[in-house]
Design brief:
Number of domains: 2
Strand order of the largest sheet: 4-5-7-9-10
Distance between the termini: 70 Å
Order of helices and strands: EEEHEEEHEEHEHEH
CATH class of the largest domain: Alpha Beta
Structural class: alpha/beta
Number of strands: 10
CATH topology of the largest domain: Transcription Regulator spoIIAA
Radius of gyration: 19 Å
Shape: globular
Strand content: 35-45%
CATH architecture of the largest domain: 2-Layer Sandwich
Largest sheet: 5 strands, mixed
Helix content: 25-40%
Length: about 160
């Protein structure tokens, strides 16, 4: 009997941000292919990115901003937070729960935007997410507005 070997297959997936490809691992045992059990949610989160000149609106479409998606969010935010982006609005209106890893992703974006002399504005912060920001004493360090429109208005006054 041969030992199991692991292969990967490229699988097309669709998300809120468009479509893409992901490697899905398989294990081959005696010529029978068995797909490893994992959800695409763990491999690919749902968010949208809208560019309007020097303004980027990043909307998280998941109810949880936690360790299961924080790495993907950080990766995307590092791509977005470039010197040509003067303002980044992160819409958290659909996020119900956030842990320290999720908060870390937001702080990474804040640091990157500050280094590039840009602005980060959080919108739609509510419930447990607001409590976490308050408990962490970050309310004074993060710019928070109720809606995207409020953030755009605030930016026009700066």
């Amino acid at each position: 009997m041969t030992s199991p070997s692991e292969l990967s297959r490229i699988t097309r997936i669709d998300s809120g941000a468009g479509s893409g490809f992901v490697l899905v691992p398989f294990i081959v045992r005696n010529c029978n292919i068995v797909q490893r059990s994992h959800t695409l949610h763990q491999a690919f989160m749902r968010f949208s990115v809208d560019h309007d000149g020097e303004l980027v609106i990043f909307t998280i479409k998941e109810p949880l901003l936690d360790s299961s998606i924080a790495a993907e969010v950080k990766h995307e935010l590092l791509i977005i937070c470039q010197p040509e982006v003067k303002a980044l609005v992160i819409d958290l209106s659909r996020v119900q729960l956030c842990d320290t890893q999720g908060l870390s992703a937001l702080l990474l974006a804040n640091r990157q935007m500050n280094e590039n002399e840009g602005f980060l504005i959080l919108v739609g912060v509510q419930g447990q997410v607001k409590s976490l920001i308050d408990i962490s004493r970050l309310s004074d360090k993060l710019e928070i507005r109720d809606t995207v429109q409020d953030a755009v208005q605030w930016l026009s006054e700066e």
